[in-house]
Amino acid sequence: MEHLNRSTLFLVFRLVPILSIPLYLFAWLLVTRNKSKVVQAVRKHFLRQMLINFISVVLLCVVVCPILIPPIPGYYMTGLLASFDANYDTNVAIPLVLMTHVVLMVALAIMQLFKHQLVTISDLRHTRKFELPVKIIRWLYKICYLVMILVATTILPALTIEFELEGFRKGAYEYFQNPVCLCPDMFIADPRHWKILVPYCWSITFGALCSITGLSSVITCLVIIYDSRKMVSRETLIMQRNFTLSLLYQALVCIVFIVMPLASVSTLFYTDIHIEEHGLYYLLLISSQGAVNNMMHIVPGLWRKLRKKGTADQSRQSWKNSSMWSTSVSNVASTAC
């Protein structure tokens, strides 16, 4: 593991929380100063989501900082928790349980925004045409919450697997011929054991279900907004459309930066596939989710600032031209007299 200290990719991964602080602060500033009624209604949701995202980044990159060695089923801790474990001999399965619950909190924060927009749009433009689709999607949200509870519950028995499968370490060492299997900072367990297999299956189900529910919710909102475009003012229509498109961006970021990397990494442990750089590419994707997600606040905020500045400059130039025209007319009139 000494070569990791010389790895540029590993250094960038460790510095992700520090590098992303300006983006979080800038996004927080734009959200708190946004006067839009649509944003003000969900301001607390946005700020809570930023806080959860940043906590997850710190936990992943600083506290745990896991190193993956597929196809060896487990992870090697190199963060602050590894130093704490060396002094107090903590359970190496704690990071797995902790990160699972934090990822669930990130997903919950996103789902709450989606559900809020769906309920708001459907209540404002209530028509029988969309009554059934909205009812189905709201039931899907309830199923998502139920599956989320199942994931959070079924991962807890993993805390005891270290004591039951101590012999699996020796078997893994003999099979993979890698001394890291015997390291006390390495969490390693049989992926076919029910304490690992059951939460894995529920996690895959939760990720797929959340992706389907989120995309369906956003698409339904866009269809409702388009169908009722003649019922509201153009300004309200544009605000609601832009906000719904920003939620669509969030859904795609969640799928690309969380669901797909986690599904890929967890599936690697069930296949005899080796990956380069100890899975740091996957971990970088996951840790960058919050910073990329903040762009939904930063880009529109900068665009509004530039547009206001351009409008102000244009108004100022028009005023100067009118003043010059008035002055020239006065001069001509004076000369004529």
TrEMBL record:
Keyword annotations: Membrane, Transmembrane, Transmembrane helix
UniProt entry tagged with the keyword Transmembrane helix: yes
Regions that span the bilayer: 12-31, 51-72, 92-114, 139-159, 202-226, 247-269, 281-299
Organism superkingdom: Eukaryota
Pfam families in alphabetical order: 7TM_GPCR_Srh
InterPro entries: 7TM_GPCR_serpentine_rcpt_Srh
Full protein name: Uncharacterized protein
Lineage: Eukaryota, Metazoa, Ecdysozoa, Nematoda, Chromadorea
